[in-house]
Amino acid sequence: MSEQLAKELQLEEENAAFPEVVAAAEGPFITGENIDTSSDLMLAQMLQMEFDREYDAQLRREERKINGDSKVSISFENYRKVHPYDSDSSEDEVDWQDTRHDPYRADKPTTTPRRGFIGKGKDITTKHDEVVCGRKNTARMENFAPEFQVGDGIGMDLKLSNQVFNALKQHAYSEERRSARLHEKKEHSTAEKAVDPKTRLLLYKMVNSGMLETITGCISTGKESVVFHAYGGNATEDKVIPPECAIKVFKTTLNEFKNRDKYIKDDYRFKDRFSKLNPRKIIRMWAEKEMHNLTRMQNAGIPCPQVVILKKHVLVMSFIGQDQVPAPKLKDVTLSSEDMKKAYYQILNMMQQLYKECNLVHADLSEYNMLWHDGKVWLIDVSQSVEPTHPHGLEFLFRDCRNVSQFFQKGGVTEALNERELFNAVSGLNITADNEVDFQAEIEALEKMNEDHVQNHGKKLSTFSSDGDPPIYDE
Ligand code: ADP
Ligand code: MG
C-alpha cells in the first residue's frame, strides 16, 4: 500500500468516525507526522479476532458432534485460538506501564498556551488536540477484548484523557492475561494427569467400544504414570474383561523418563529398537515392557494384575482391590505378626520364582509396590523389571533384597534373612563376602564378567548361577 493511499484511507476512516472535528481540523492540523497509522493494526486485530471466534465456534460444534451423549467426553479447549492479546510480549507490557513510551502521548507533554495554539504554519497544534485525542481514545476502546464491556462511548461522545485510557487499557490487558493464565493452568493440570487429548481419545474409545463400562476416577498420580479405576465392560470372543480394571497411563511428559534410560537401553529385548525410537515411542515401550513382564509373572502363577489390553502408552489390567478401593500397599497396612511372617515367606518365594521362572528382577521392589489383598501379597509396577543378565541386573536385585530385608526386619520378622543372604537365596549364587562393600564389589565383578562374555562371544551368559537351583525356603 503506498503511503499516499494509506493517508487517504486513514483520512476517510477518521472522517467517518469524527466528521465534524476532522473537518474543522483539516488543513494545518493534519500533517504527515501526526497521522496515526495504528488503525491498520486495529483492523488487522479485529479481523484476526473475528477469524478466531469463527474458529472457536467451529471447534465447539465439532466437540458437540463427537461427544454426542456419550459417557466420556473429549474437549478441544486446549486448541482454542489464543487471542492476539494473549501473546502480548512482556516488552509490550512495559510499554504500557511506562507512560514515557506511550505512543499515544507526545514525548514531552505540551501545555497549551493562552492563545490556544503552539507552533507555526503546518505544524500548528491547537487546543482541539485534547478533544481529538479524547475521542480517538474512546474509539480505541474497541480494541479491547470482546468480553471487556466498554459501553457506547462513541455514541456519548466520550472524551477519554490519555491517562484514563491507559489505565483502562492496562486493566483490560491484565484481565485478559488473567483469563489466559486460568486457561494455562487448566492445561497444565490435565498434562499433569497425563490425560492429554490423545490419551482421552484412547480412553474414550475403550468405553465406546464397550470394553470398559465406565472410568470412575484416578487412583494414583505418580511421576511416571497415572492409574485410573474402571468397571469392565463386555467380554469379547477372545477376552474376558475383569469386573474391575486398573488403567495405567504412562505419562507422555518426557522429562521424567530420561533417568530411566539405563533400565531399558541395556535390556537386550529392546536393544535394537531403542536407538531408533523417538521419546514418545520409548514411553510406549515402558508400557509394553510392563505388559510382557506381567504376562511372564502371570504364567508363573505369581499374584499380579492380569493384562487386559495395551494400547499405545495405556495399559489396562485387572484391578487389585474391590469396589473401587485399591488394595493397600504393604507400607500402609498393619499386619498381625503371623500375616507379616506369611507375607515374608511369600515374597521370598515370589522373588525366587521371578528370578528363576520368569528370568526377571523386579528392580523396584519395596513395600510401595506390593499390595496386600485377599490375605496375600500382590506384585505390581514391573515396567522397569529386567532380566538378571542385564548389565545392572544383579545390582538391582541387591537393592530389591535390601528393601525387602529391611522392611521385614523392622516389621519384627525374626526369620527374615539379611540382604546378602536373601540375594544368594534368590539368585542361587554363593557370594561369600560378609560385608556390604565387598559383596557389592563381587556383584559388580560378576556383571563385568558377563559383559566381557558378551564382548568376546557376542552373547550373554545364560545364567549366573553356578550352584544349580536356588534353595527353596519355606515356612
Ligand atoms: P508408579 O510407577 O506410578 O509407581 P504403579 O504401577 O506402582 O505406578 O501404580 C501406582 C499406584 O496405583 C499403586 O501404588 C497402586 O496403589 C495403584 N495401582 C496400580 N496398579 C493397580 C492395580 N492393578 N490394581 C489396583 N491398584 C493399582
Ligand atoms: Mg509404584
Automatic annotation (TrEMBL):
Belongs to the protein kinase superfamily. RIO-type Ser/Thr kinase family. CDD domains: RIO3_euk (cd05146). Interacts with CASP10. Interacts with IRF3; RIOK3 probably mediates the interaction of TBK1 with IRF3. Associated with 40S pre-ribosomal particles. The lineage of its organism: Eukaryota, Metazoa, Chordata, Craniata, Vertebrata. This is Serine/threonine-protein kinase RIO3. Keywords: Antiviral defense, ATP-binding, Cytoplasm, Immunity, Innate immunity, Kinase, Magnesium, Metal-binding, Nucleotide-binding, Phosphoprotein, Ribosome biogenesis, Serine/threonine-protein kinase, Transferase. Residues 184-428 form the RIO kinase domain. The keyword Cell cycle does not apply. Its EC number is 2.7.11.1. One of its GO terms (molecular function) is ATP binding. Residues 97-108 have a biased composition (Basic and acidic residues). Its cofactor is Mg(2+). It is found in: Cytoplasm. It catalyses: L-seryl-[protein] + ATP = O-phospho-L-seryl-[protein] + ADP + H(+); L-threonyl-[protein] + ATP = O-phospho-L-threonyl-[protein] + ADP + H(+). Coiled coil: none annotated. The keyword tRNA processing does not apply. Residues 83-121, 456-475 are annotated as: Disordered. One of its GO terms (biological process) is defense response to virus. It comes from Cyanistes caeruleus. GO terms for cellular component: cytoplasm. It holds the Pfam family RIO1.
